[in-house]
Amino acid sequence: MSIVHVNIGSNQNRRANIRLAVKALEQHFLNIELSSLFESPSEGFKGNDFYNVGVNITTLKTSKEVVDILRDIENSLGRDRSLPKFSSRMIDLDLVLYGGIIDDSLNVPRKDILKYAFVLAPLAELNPESIHPLEGSSYQNLWKTFQSKQDYDLRQYNVEKLFE
What we know:
The chain is globular and about 35 Å long. It has 164 residues and is an alpha+beta fold. The chain has one domain (2-163): 7,8-Dihydro-6-hydroxymethylpterin-pyrophosphokinase HPPK (Alpha-Beta Plaits), CATH 3.30.70. Helix content is 30%, strand content 24%.
């Protein structure tokens, strides 16, 4: 069994789309754990603020199978892949970690961990003592360092806000 971390993001009909993504994940995986809900401005373009939620999943599926499932869920929820990389998203499901493996072809561990608060904060919340396989530091320590060096706008809410 591997512990997998996925980041879900949306800035279009945010609550509904993230709820649908979580329900879809529950159909494919067991032992799903959700982080807090994080809200942040769009990065790299002008657009509505994003909601992001980190998700820990326990699975026997391979990393490639997990990525395929994430893509299928995005497609079923209307993800438009013809849009530019930095643009509004109905839904975005990113494999952030797959156990301790390093796989450059899948961008695992995801490089965004060290770039964006909306990726690192939920990861550190759910996996504070886990060690980044390339950095050799815990996610809790990486988050503390990030907070001291970065200028970012990130608001944290109880994840139940999604289900109200």
